[in-house]
Write the structure tokens for this entry.
Amino acid sequence: MTYTNWINFAQLPHHQQDNNRYCGEACIQMAVHALTTGTLGTPPEDQNVYDGFIPSALADGLINWYTAPQNLVIGLNTYIDAKYADFPRRFELHCYPMTGSPPDPAAISRAIVWHIEQYGKAPIVLVGGFQHWLLVRGYQSDQQPASTTDTAYTITSFFVADPGPELPQPTTAVCWPEPHDDSCDQCGVGPLRGQRSQHVTYATWSTTYMTGVPADSGSACSGNFLMITDSLDKQQYSGGPAQPNVPACGCETPPPALLENAPAAITQADTNLPIDEQLLDDGDLRKQAIAGAQCGIEDFKLTEIGDWHYALPDTTPDAPYRVQYLDRTGRFYYLVPFKKKGVTSVAVKVDGPSSIYEASVAVAAPDISVIEILNVDQIPMKLSGREFLYRGSTWSIGREDVIADPPPQLVWQFCHESSSPFYPFYEVHVRLGSGEAIVYMRASDGATFTELSIHYGGD
């Protein structure tokens, strides 16, 4: 089965966020870079420049925004006014009420598709509820859309540009961060530098990414899906900075009947069986996961597309990694690495028992892996000597403090510390004095946290 007959991409330079608060700034950098390439020159590489145009972080209900929706629009337009005043378009915020149970993102998804078709530019969208900004750089569908009102076509997938994870800290005295605009730019080409080539099926898009701002968040954005595009004509735009402490969202709050159907938290359709209903053992499931990954690559014609076209030839699927969802009881997924010469060129995410293809990432560089998962045996060494603030006290962990039973397992949920299922954590039980605690070690780089934060917006 083939799921696509039409594909369209927006040209988009990839930029990694410089710290764990700068996803909005990195999105501005990508959006402005895409707008100005070939006409107005390369924008600054320092994301602090863009931060200076964004109003301060604010609290909005239960959400602590690093980059609130309306503030991101202000930052984009104020920067363009200051640096590219003659540019004919400006950015605006689009809000789409969450309707249905679970809420259906069809309207905003079709708007994303049409913006790519009409302008050839990548919209900025809010994903993971309210947690993270990224850009949608392309899509696949069963036929070419004909107009803004065309609902006859079926969207099968999106290609996203995620600015996360944050730039790793420098290990040498060289200039850091490295330039974002020269031939040595490594943004998006490795496990520590992000993944510029990400493919997400529409089913995964609607259950993991485009889930909307929850109704019980208390935010001015509650009950809406959000998108920012450069579709506003300059003559329609007043120009200049707005008040710095604007509401977090320019949305009109939907009527109560719609809010009643909005989810209280991030949700997913029941595509996984509870663990106690599984009929196959883990070995059989891993074999099925590999087969599902291979079917997805074929069905979505990834061997013909971008980095996958260069990365997939001569690869062999390796042992899948099982990752448990922290926010979906009894549910899990597999990451299937496709390797050649010891390098993981492509990684595929498939659903647990069903083995249905959900997403993939690829890197064309021959000597760089697209994902990196620490060996579980490295965990005690990585944790040894680290100090943690836990329940008001500072603790130092030694190798002997890592508890072997239960053993560390890979886990993930959308959070401040990871915006992508390709960056899971090890859940590690450790001894602290006479008690025990759980710490989370990010499997790509060993960064360790005593908790995973889910109340930060636009990070």
Q: What stands out?
A: The chain has three domains: 6-260, 275-362, 376-457. The chain is about 20% helix and 25% strand.
